[in-house]
Amino acid sequence: MVRGKCPELVARLEQQTTPVANWCSQHAQTIKDTAHSWVGFVELDDASVWLKVFRPKGLAQQFSMRLGRHRALRSFNSANNLLKAQLPVPLPIACLQVGGEMLLVTKRLPQGGDLLSLWQSQGEHLPAAIWREAGSVIGQLHRAGFVHGDCKWSNIYRAHDQHYLLDLEAVARVGVGASVAYRDVARFVLNAEDMGASSGILQTFLTAYACEVDSSIEEVSIATLPQLKRLRQRHERKYGRRGHILLQD
What we know:
By secondary structure, this protein is of the alpha+beta class. It folds into two domains: 2-107, Phosphorylase Kinase, domain 1 (2-Layer Sandwich), CATH 3.30.200; 113-239, Transferase(Phosphotransferase), domain 1 (Orthogonal Bundle). The protein is built from nine helices and eleven strands. It has a six-stranded antiparallel beta sheet with strand order 1-5-6-4-3-2, with helices on both faces. Strands 7-9-10 form a three-stranded antiparallel beta sheet. The protein has a two-stranded antiparallel sheet with strand order 8-11. Strand 5 and strand 6 form a beta hairpin. The longest helix has 23 residues, at 217-239. The N and C termini lie far apart (50 Å). The mean pLDDT is 90.
């Protein structure tokens, strides 16, 4: 199964008899290696590309791969759809099935960092533009009729004064103004609460988001709260109580 084109990488992988993640760890720069995925980048003759290997979590994912419904394919297709809508995402190059694993290939983004990493290194010293542009890009996504589905700080990447949306496997089309879109806002706010961010950061984010979706901060806050309360409860069950409340009735 191949979507897109990456002939040089395909030629290299066709010679392999070991899992694709093994080849990647030997020939590419590793960024993350977990039980369920490997992420890194490699220099090809014509491009520097990001690689993400999706290791099957169980029989259900192996079956979905055979049916062409794997999350790597969803991410590849979503990236193409968002690009058509002129939304900022890494350029999708190819999606390959190699043995029992799926490999997603995207153009490597310029040097930068996801919002979580930037926060952990700089905290409140980050410029307000970071949070304003985060609100704008999520608002643009929703105004185009899409939701992200996992809009946490680590899935928003900043480089060269541009925000990019990452991990697109849960992206879905929705009607403009759909209530489910506020789950993205709630997920972002939950991260802000968890990290102990200031109310000023939240206000900057919400102001920019509300402007993009032609709403008010009050209307956005009211629509976000039910989703946020559910996420808080689930988060607390999993991790215990952390951070502080920023958005409330």
